Here is the input.
Amino acid sequence: MWLIMAILSAFFAGITSILAKCGIKKTDSDVATAMRTIVVLLFAWVMVFIVGSAETISAISAKSLLFLILSGLATGASWICYFKALSLGDVNKVVPIDKSSTVLSVLLAILLFRETAHLAAKLTGTALLAVGIYLMIERKQNTAKNANGRWMLYAILSAVFASLTSILAKVGIAGVESNLATAIRTLVILIMAWLIVFGKGKQKQVRDIDRKELVFISLSGLATGASWLCYYYAIQNGIVSVVVPIDKLSIVITVAFSRFVFREKLSKKAFLGLLLMVAGTLAMALL
Here is the structure.
């Protein structure tokens, strides 16, 4: 069941990037992140009440709550950097760097959780992922605002925070129902996102959001909520160093949609990188 959930997580995560890109053409990325987090939070708490886990909140240990909060903060930081990178660069350039979080997540899972089964396959897959990511990273051409590589910096920071998210969440959801854990983490992200919006004085931009873009922002929030619910169920019940690579197969879905939606083509070098990323992921997932 956790393998199925990991696959579903990858699908929803794949379409999230496309929907989000459609929603931040004119809308500020910080404002869009804050708005979509509202949708994710509502989605998460609806699921909590559906499964009836709300009554177990008082039973959450202080340690689990602390790590859920830290995981939420890491996710919030990753989101902010990720959507800033998307607003500056091509989806096909940003997503591969963001997916590099898989490499660090797998290595940390091996070191911290002693997930050493099939270690050779995991390390081989990690190496293929790293090479594939390198090949897929290309600077966006003929765009002055990207000439200084700001999108790449934000994408790298997104990957670092994302890798920490998986590790912190694994500790935080021990003994906590996965839907409830997701809802708590999302609440932390919501607070963080809106503090940034108000801290930068961008709250007035909320009322000026284009209605069409608001629809895409909301849809990306729903896709994210669905991806998270599946992902953290898989993390809680499965093996982190297997779940994370499967989830990152979302890049295939993202690349496919970006080709048809944004007409973003892959060079031969980038396509080879994509194949290596898929091969590396499968090497770790199909153990």
About this structure: The radius of gyration is 18 Å. The CA atoms of residues 42 and 117 lie 38 Å apart. The chain has a mean pLDDT of 83. The chain has twelve helices and no strands.
